[in-house]
Sequence to fold (153 residues):
Amino acid sequence: MSHDACRRQADARGEDGAGALTPQLPVALSPAEEVFFDGRPRARELYAVFLHRLLELLPDAQLRIQKTQITFTNPRVFACVSMMRVRRARERPPEYIVVTFGLGHELRDRRIDAAIEVRPRRWTHHVLVADESEVDDQLMAWVEEAYEFSRSK
Fold:
């Protein structure tokens, strides 16, 4: 289902899928997204900020909610959000999200927690996000580049 359809359903009810009023977020989450972030309110807020920015930048992006990640497609996968452990426990904040995206080259930046060449000229990058300010123009430019890279395949 497209995120717009999920969002319209939640907006029409003014509540989450369980009937509870939701705190004000920049974008209404679908019931499945709410379940994905159950018990992780801070991660939910970070995801909502990321999703809002992503849908403004790439309105035709589709999403698929899975057990361990939310995948964004165009129709190929270009980014994911998860709670992957990309840092040691003592270096991780209590709640966060990890934005994962694929590019045709390795990014070398202090914000990249891990970069893996999964195939020749195919790099997967993981960025831990613990604050709304980290969902910035730089991160979104990387996600947009991943979107364009996946469309070229």
Remarks:
- The first strand starts at residue 62 and ends at 65.
- The beta strands are 62-65, 69-73, 77-82, 97-103, 114-119, 122-129.
- Residues 41-57 form the longest helix (17 residues).
